[in-house]
Amino acid sequence: MLSLNHFLLLGAVLFSIGLYGALSRRNAVAILMCIELMFNAVNITLVAFARFLAPAATASQSLAPVSTVGQVFTIFVITVAAAEAAVGLAIVLAIYRTRRTISVEDVDLMKW
Amino acid sequence: MNDPIIAIAFFVLAAVLLISALAVVMLRNIVHSALFLALAFVSVAGFYILLNAEFLAAVQILIYAGAVMILLLFAIMLTQRANTPMSNVSNSQAGLAAIVAAAVFVVLAFVLSKTSWLTGAAAVTQPNTEVLGKALFDYYVLPFEIASVLLLVAMIGAIVIARED
Amino acid sequence: MSPGYLTLITFLPLLGAIVTALMPKDNLRAIRLTAAGFAFVALVLSVIVWVQYDTNAAGLQFVEKVPWIPSLGITYFMGVDGLNLPMVVLTTLLTFLAILASWHITLRTKFYFALLLLLEMGIVGVFTSLDLLLFFLFWEVELIPMYLLIIIWGGPRREYAAIKFVLYTIAGSALMLAGILALYFFADANVSGRTFDLLELAKTNYALKYGPVFSSVVFFLLILGFLIKLPSFPFHTWLPDAHVEAPTAVSVILAGVLLKMGGYAIIRINASILPQALHDWAYVLAIMAVISVIYGACTSMVQNDLKKMVAYSSVSHMGYVLLGIAALTPASMNGAVLQMFTHGTITGMLFLLVGVIYDKTHTRLISEFGGLAARMPLYATLFVMGGLASLGLPGMSGFVAEFTVFVGSYLNPNMQLFTIIAAAGIVITAGYIMWMLQRVFFGPLVQKWQHIEDARGIEVVPLVVLVVIIIAVGVYPALVTNVIGGGVAPVMANFTKAGL
Amino acid sequence: MESFSIEYLGLIPLFPLLAFVIIALVTRPLKRLSAYLSILAVFASLLVSAWALYSLVIAFLSHASGEALVKELTVTWFSVGGVALPAGLILDPLTAMMLIVVTIVSFLVQVYSQGYMHDDPGYSKYFAFISLFTTSMLILVMANNFLQLYIGWELVGLCSYLLIGFWYHKPEAAAAAKKAFLTTRLGDLGLLVGILIIYFTTHSFGFAEIEHEIKVGALSGGLLTVAMVCVFLGAVGKSAQFPLHVWLPDAMEGPTPVSALIHAATMVAAGVYLVARTFEMFAASPDQQALLVVAYVGGFTAIFAASMGLVMNDIKKVMAYSTISQLGYMMMGLGVGAYAAGVFHLFNHAFFKALLFLGSGSVIHAVHDQDMRNMGGLGGKLKITFVTMLFASLALAGIPPFSGFWSKDEILAGAFEKDTLLYIIGAVAAFFTAFYIFRAMFMTFTGKYRGAPAHDSHGSAGGHGHDSVHASASPEDELRAKVKEHASGHGEHGIHESPWVMTVPLILLAIPSLLSGLLGSPFMGMAFQSFIEKGAEVHEELNYTVMMSSIAIAVAGILLSSLVYYFKIIPANLISRPLPWLHAFVLNKYAMDDLYGWIVNSVVLGASRAALWFDQYVVDGIVNGVANLVGAAGGALRKVETGQIPNYGLAIFAGAVVISAVLIISGSTL
């Protein structure tokens, strides 16, 4: 039967795949894509937690329903991811304009 | 979660997701990668539905499969020159990256196998868009506003950075 | 509450620096006069302290003690005794003279004088503070103006020299800080709680309590910084570089008082708090001292740059200080302090002299000169007097100090050989001074200096002041020795108490 | 004795000191006034000294003896760390005698200098220095402790330096001054170490206390010998004894009156005075080893320097070597235990050697040359100079009844009793002495003038104004004059006797040259010796053998000299022709200067250069090396920063994995 661990494991696999891609790609846009994959892995995990975990709701005096925490987090992550994608791609474009390449190996001014 | 249909859906979706994710990182043509990424985003939305997060599923489709994908495709289109089939190759540390990624996976898997989660009845068991909306505009209103400012800043920043002088 | 003379002397220059810094930068005359005025008031105050100092009463006087950071046992603790009072007066005196000698500075004048005053504050603070943390603070504060003075107004290799000076000193300070903390944390805290108070720390017998290894390690942590400052062979190489590059006035202060911080600190901290370790390692110090004396003198001999010669001679002369300390007899310790005072005046004078000739000729190379006495009789006379004082001619203060060191050191049977070798230094010293005088002033006048002007006016004033002091102390040493004696006695009492 | 209080002694150096200060600060531009001030001051000192001596002599004649003839006053100069550094005065026969010698010679030399230094631009300075010297010398001889003696000792060294280098624009003078100072300072180091040893054992600087401590055995045995040899080293430097004698001949670069005062009569005798003052301590060393060292060094110096005197052509150099030789004689006298004889010789020598120097000065003043080969026949022109110098030469050669005979003979007698070898050395040296001084006399005053042929002398052109002659060729211009001499010639006509301010001191000095010896002669019951030995009865058996032989030696020396240089029966190059290398070797001062020059240039400077190299490349090299090492390490490490973002990411995650693994394995629940 499906349990929390199924989803977590799925998230872990997805995260690792994304990580591999982010570390091994040359193309800056591809790296950004892989990072999006990793975001999604995290999001799956967060939503799964929201779905399966049941913290002691009564202990908290908060006004917010405990069950929404995971999903709210996910919304913020998506927001940030969208912002990140916009800025990241803008940077890629800027680099491309000045250096005519988007290979991250060619962009190494920040060394030594 | 005891419905076998759901279980089947889970595995099918998982297969689609992982295969498309692998395709994203493996394929050498960045346009293909981007298309598979869109597929991955859609399948993630499927998982959200499985997890009773239908609002998030909608958001996922709208933002990721829609907006972000468009952004990515525009970026590809603006930056891509010749040799598209070899536009997404590995760098010199791909082997090491594979090892590290595997190691990360092992660590994660190990940790989640060792953790006993506190599962229980209070979990989300039915569609809850309304509850989510209330929480967002009530208790989380300040973070929400900050997030909107963040988006605004990101938008302006992106324009400034990408603008041609 | 006492009038707070020491606080005034210490922080008046700071006020002066601030006032100077706030003045309009084009009014050079006002800037100079303001700086000189503040320095002069500090000098007057320190002379008042000197006069009011009761030579018969033992222990510290003019004490000011206020809790500063009570939770850590840090106090604002100042006081003078025979060890530091001469140094304080020396500092205020030489700073004042250095300001006079800087009258012609036109590059960023305001900043320059402000820094000089700031430097004075740091040095006076080092000498007057009796709380280790306060001491350390001033020790570090003094570095910054010195660094800037060298790197802005220095010679062609000023960056190298300034950075070398700062790094070398800071390396020493880092170890010193470790040593201070070791003293702090391992002191007998039962009675009064944790404290940085020097007098309280001296009550702990570290050697007895933690064994000789511990006390030796702490001893070396502390003394390394001081040996660098002194400077003793082999930690001296920053000195010639710094001196050659520094402007005249800064050299005067550097050699005149900054080096004394090292010797003073060894007596004040190492000898007072860790007598056993000093006793155990006296041999090592004595060997370093003797090497400094002979080696410094030999290297002076073959210098062609007047300033470098004087700089290396400082290494040689400060070797006597170290020897006096290492010999650990009351007379030698007195001699060491006396030597610090006299060396301050003599070397200050020599650097001023070199500065005068450098301003006139823009060279310091001995080989460039010759027969200058014919054109500059007054200057030559003053230089000869300075040289004679440096080589320890009786009737001048150098002799009194060196003789006291020799007699005192020889009284320690273990130090007799070292004393004799060090005494041989006076011959070498005479050698390089006389040789230099011969080459610079005597013989036929070199053609290109035919129209050189003799020293006069404000160039002469500081020199004459120093000559008067040198001769006064040389003829009537009790002027200084009476004060010093009261400061050395408690330190030596420590040794007798510890059965050394 | 009652009439003279010991405190008055302090006045004696005070007068010249005041003169020095006033001249230096006030009257420098007023030449005449400065000179008068200086002379007046030393005359005042002379009077007080005479008074002191008179009081002692009165006491002596009333048969006071021993401690009754000694007065002391000690105060603490300053005290530091339990060591009291004393200042003190002593008045005893030795000091009284020295005071008189110093003040008389100083007075006469200053009077003489008025003529000799006439028109020198540094006239005031000269008198200031002489005053300072007189002060220092007086401080030295009236010290009752080592410390004060050492102070005076160094100060006279300084004055010697200043006066040798008085004409500082001459490179030779500047070099000679430096050499004198450094050579004596080397000896001073020995004295200093000696003082340290003595203080360490006896805890005293005072002579009387130290003698007492030695008697009770606080300092004895080998250490005492070492200490006294160290002290003697100081005397070796100051009195120009072998091997530190090299500075004295060079010191002749100074003005001649200075040579007379400092380098003949007073300062160089300070070494002898020191040994005499501490004679008891020397004598207390086991088997009198310390005295033996003194005797042999002195004896060797006596003959060694005399042999060089034989060949020198510069009249002042002859005098210089003669001085060294005579000082060696005094040392030898002290060394063989003839204490009073040594001091007596010092006393006599001070007058006749000062006279010889002043006379030479007069000659040089007249002919503007120092080379005796360019002189000759001057006896007729410079009558006073000639006669007075003849007195002094006879005294030096040791012809009775001139003063030198009595003391020299007594030293030889002492040596004869003590050590035959020393006696032989002394006798040979005496022969040399007689020979070389008369060689100098004959070459200078007899025969024909060998200077450049007569010319229309520029000197007489200026009329009879001696002053103007002297002005143009005042000793300040010796060097230039010498050059001019060879070019234009000076001529016999320009030679005149010196003015009265110069001749009067010569005459005044000729009197003691003739008579001072009689004070210690058997005719006066060896009064001098008895006085110096504080009233002890001196019964010396007259050793007629020694006396006769020494007269014979002196006469023989003079005779031989006359045969060679007056009658010219024996060619002067009798020895130098077959043995040119020997002559050259001696003329080259036994190559000692070369040796020392080599030591200084090669060894000392070489070692110094090595030290500097070591400093720059090893010590500083290590410092810079450490700095470079840190820099290099940084340089190597910064290569890690590739600028490749994937590298950084890889490292971040690898690090995260490692940290996680560690935490997991260690079982932490972080």
Provide tags for this entry.
heterotetramer; B: 165 residues; mainly alpha; Four Helix Bundle (Hemerythrin (Met), subunit A); 2 domains; 6 helices; globular; C: 500 residues; two-stranded antiparallel ribbon; 20 helices; 2 strands
Describe the structure.
The complex is a heterotetramer of chains A (112), B (165), C (500) and D (670). Chain A is an all-alpha fold. Chain A has 3 helices and no strands. Residues 57-61 of chain A have low confidence and may be disordered. Chain C has 500 residues and is mainly alpha-helical. Chain C has helices at 5-22, 28-52, 85-101, 109-128, 132-141, 143-153, 158-186, 198-201, 206-229, 238-245, 248-273, 275-280, 282-301, 306-327, 330-361, 377-390, 397-411, 416-441, 460-475, 478-497; strands at 61-69, 74-80. In chain C, helix 11 packs parallel to helix 14. In chain D, strand 1 and strand 2 form a beta hairpin. Chain A binds chain D through residues 19, 22-25, 31, 104-105, 107-112, and chain D through 638-639, 641-646, 649-650, 653.
Query: In angstroms, what separates the terminal alpha carbons of chain A?
Result: 54 Å
Instruction: Report the count of strand segments of chain D.
Output: 2
**Strand order across the biggest sheet of chain D?**
1-2
Gross CATH architecture of chain A: Orthogonal Bundle
Oligomer: heterotetramer
Q: Strand fraction band of chain D?
A: under 5%
Instruction: Name the chain pair whose interface involves the most residues.
Output: A-B, 77 and 89 residues
Report on the biggest sheet of chain D: 2 strands, antiparallel
Number of helices of chain D: 27
- Helix percent band of chain D: over 70%
Question: What is the CATH class name of chain A?
Answer: Mainly Alpha
Principal-axes geometry of chain A comes out as elongated
Helix-strand category of chain D? mainly alpha
